Amino acid sequence: MPNEQPSTAELYARHVVPTYGRFPLCLARGKGARVWDEDGREYLDFTSGIAVNAIGHAHPALQKAIAEQAGELVHTSNLFLTRPQALLAARLEKMAGARGKVFFCNSGAEANEGLYKLARKHGGGRHGIITLDGSFHGRTLGGIAATGQSKVKLGFGPPVDGFVNVPPRIECVANAVNGSTAAILVEPIQGEGGVRPLTAGFLRALRKLCDAHGLLLFFDEVQCGLGRTGDWCGWHASGADDVVPDAVSWAKGIGGGFPLGAFWVREPYADLLGPGTHGTTYGGSPLACAAANAVFDTIEADNLLANARERGEQLREGAKTLPLVREARGAGLLIGLEIGDFAPGQEETGTAALRLTLRLIKAGLLVVPAGEQVIRLLPPLNVAAAECDEALRILREVLAAAKPLP
Ligand SMILES: Cc1ncc(COP(=O)(O)O)c(C=O)c1O
Q1: Under a CB-based contact definition with an 8 Å cutoff, are residues 176 and 207 in contact?
Q2: Residue from 110, 132, 223, 254 whose mutation best tests the ligand 1 pocket (most atoms within 8 A of CB)
Q3: Catalytic: which of 202, 252, 263, 296?
Q4: What is the per-residue pLDDT across 81-106, written as a single tens digit (0 to 9) for each?
Q5: Ligand 1 atom nearest to CA at 135
Q6: Ligand 1, atom 4, residue with closest C-alpha
Q7: 299-325 residue pLDDT tens
Q8: What's the pLDDT score for residue 1?
Q9: In this structure, which topology does domain 62-301 adopt according to CATH?
Q10: What is the CA(138)–ligand 1 centre distance, in A?
């Protein structure tokens, strides 16, 4: 009797909680902006693990930093000081652009949880947080209450008290402010919501509103921060360089794939979360921070912000000439292509974005759907011009074969 090993997909079906609608593709290795599946087939990876692998797969600088730090200290807990964490905190403060301090955690949802606690601590009895329709802030109970998309809340009972989601218009935000409001939280460019940038004028108006009512202004830069837009700060890419938020959350790109999250909080609020008020065992481990420092070093040394801006321009300009593409938006390498609907082929189901993503996978290009009609292009910040041309060629071929629906 042959003793057949179960396939990876069979093992998943049997043993892994099915929370994700996963693509039928098992990735085995990567290099730069390319990945290979279990059978050795090559793909152009324009997902970067959903805006995470900032310097691509298997980058030598990241490998070296992780290997060297693993040989020194992997983890210490936050009972002690470590040099990589201290250096990274100083770096993040500089990036945020104003005096303040940094707290380290492990993910975007967890970074935002810190902001919710900060709002309550500052609020002194006020606990309301206003967020925007279409936003995404993570999958914790706080995160789904903050997220302005009903699909993430369904089935999880009463939301955490105090969150209100409003349309992204200043009068709607202003109308939602009341005596219990403590903070406003927005993504300067909504990522999961379909790559929707907020305007500089709107961000400035939010700052004014917060100043007028003594509210904290929080930016969730988990997806749009850390160089993804071709600028260290996503809100600068929207033209709002003059706006100073009170706190910013980060994750995704910060560790180049090594799990790490953080938030920065500006003076005079930087000491509000004092000893014993907040914490996490793993946050800011020397290993994670060494990885993040290597990512920052590489972005700086290789001038990758400029590359992100140039390649972003190349992709958006190229995408505007593609069949079925209605709009190409975003900044740098956070790109959303809004597509028209097209006729499903035999056995194809799901939204236009999902069906297109599956066709693109077959053609050798990995992208990320966002909502029903948007696909995101999120290549690493060091993607080459020739790789962007190749992605545009695959997109053109696949889109040209799609039959538009009226
Ligand atoms: C803007 C934003 N905030 C928060 C999160 C949650 O981050 P994580 O999945 O690391 O918890 C995400 C994830 O997609 C995000 O895009």
Answers
A1: no
A2: 223
A3: 252
A4: 999 999 999 999 999 999 999 999 99
A5: 1
A6: 137
A7: 999 999 999 999 999 999 999 999 999
A8: 54
A9: Aspartate Aminotransferase; domain 2 (3.40.640)
A10: 5
What pLDDT, on a 0 to 100 scale, did the predictor assign at position 2?
61
403 catalytic per annotation: no
Distances in whole angstroms, Cα of residue 83 to Cα of each of 88, 95, 325: 9, 19, 48
- The Å distance, Cα 252 to ligand 1 centre, comes to 7
Which residues fall within 8 angstroms of residue 265, CB to CB, at 6 or more apart? 100, 101, 102, 103, 118, 246, 247, 272, 273
**What is the distance in A from the centroid of ligand 1 to the CA of 43?**
25
- Region 254-275: mean pLDDT is 98
Angle ∠(386,338,53) on CA atoms, nearest 5: 50
pLDDT digits (tens, 9 = 90+) for 163-214: 999 999 999 999 999 999 999 999 999 999 999 999 999 999 999 999 999 9
CATH homologous superfamily of 8-59+303-401: Aspartate Aminotransferase, domain 1 (3.90.1150.10)
- Residue 153: per-residue pLDDT: 98
Q: Pick the atom of ligand 1 nearest to 190's CA.
A: 1
What average pLDDT does the segment 228-244 reach? 96
For residue range 21-61, list pLDDT tens digits in order: 999 999 999 999 999 999 999 999 999 999 999 999 999 99
Distance (angstroms) between ligand 1 centre and the Cα of 141 equals 13
Spell out the domain ranges in the chain.
8-59+303-401, 62-301
pTM: 0.97
- Whole-angstrom CA distances from 368 to 173, 193, 372 are 30, 12, 11
Tokens 């593709």 label which residue? 25
3-class DSSP assignment, residue 14: helix
- Alpha-carbon distance 387 to 109, whole Å? 32
Q: Is 46 a catalytic residue?
A: no
> Which residue's CA is minimally distant from atom 8 of ligand 1?
108
pLDDT of 406 above 90: no
Candidate list 45, 220, 231, 246, residue with the active-site label: 220
Provide the pLDDT for residue 189.
98
